[in-house]
Amino acid sequence: MSLLEVKGLRRDFGALRAVDDVSFELEAGTVLGFIGPNGAGKSTTMRILATLDTPTAGEVLLDGYSLVDTPDKVRPLIGYMPDRYGTYDDVTVFEFLDFFARAYGLTGPVRARRLASVMEFTGLGPLADKLTHALSKGMKQRVALGRTLLHDPKLLILDEPADGLDPRARIELRELLRALADQGKAVLISSHILTELAEICDTCAIIEQGRLLATGKVADVLAQAAGTAVVELLVRLLPGAEGEEAWARAERLLWEQPHVKEVSREGQALRVRLEQEGAAAAWGDEVAARLLKVLVEAGVPVCAFGHRERNLEDAFMRVTRGRVA
Ligand SMILES: Nc1ncnc2c1ncn2[C@@H]1O[C@H](COP(=O)(O)OP(=O)(O)OP(=O)(O)O)[C@@H](O)[C@H]1O
């Protein structure tokens, strides 16, 4: 049995169906990426899973308990970080976390141990006496994450935690989330930042207009959306007319090749898009080698040649149509 089972979840706001028959499961010790454009229904789903809203229809089981019928039973198991979280003026990092530890009902040595453990895990120890409102965005976000961990929940629901973070803070967040999954926690994380999620998620669910379009292991979702290979060519030109001629010859040659769907100029490079449904894993490499040979044999001065792997972003673009509810 999965730690979290979401079955046929629906949420209507008047005539608007914000969440439409959403079902997925999340195992302990894994990270599930919840991916979708603005207004897709991610926050609404997460709020329901955090027991802050009730579904119009459907069922959610957490550790075997119904979230709708027994919210008091499941709340201690959930750590929820909303997409907007506040800090307070004139409150230090320690005071902030201590306040919420008390709100969670932690007392005495247990509270002291949990606070110490969370401060250490999030690396907030050296900032214990800093005022929360004076922290950087990345550090504020760590405080918010620390807050969700105080009661040692089994399920973490994190609504766009990487939003607005600089690249370094994102990498650090990724490492923290991986460590939490390794501790056995189930992590549900939403984002628009697809490439970030691809690296930390074991499974993913792509949602649009309230409906799940693809769900499963990241590799399976990629396979579901398989068939699009993108090959990028960089062609440096010799100065003068001869260079322009080389560009034109390269473009013409590329358009003549099988599976080529797009050839465009991108700075000092030609970008070539080739597509084939259900292509074997080696197809991209084979086609790239063939194109390089054609260009070189035709005398086009290729000095760099790159191949972009399929990623979660490609899968997302393929299964969604970019519609917003
Ligand atoms: N309380 C509410 N009352 C009415 N409509 C709502 C309410 N909450 C959300 N919605 C609508 O439900 C739809 C889904 O919104 P939701 O916030 O869940 O999307 P999201 O995927 O989290 O988007 P974003 O990435 O922009 O946060 C939107 O059309 C939104 O306007």
UniProtKB/TrEMBL annotation:
Q: Does the keyword Nucleotide-binding apply?
A: yes
Q: Which InterPro entries match?
A: AAA+_ATPase, ABC_transporter-like_ATP-bd, ABC_transporter-like_CS, P-loop_NTPase
Residues folding into a coiled coil are none
Q: Which residues form the ABC transporter domain?
A: 4-234
Stored SMART domains: AAA
Q: Which keywords label this protein?
A: ATP-binding, Nucleotide-binding, Transport
Q: Domain of life of the organism in this record?
A: Bacteria
Q: Which family does it belong to?
A: Belongs to the ABC transporter superfamily.
Name it.
ABC transporter, ATP-binding protein
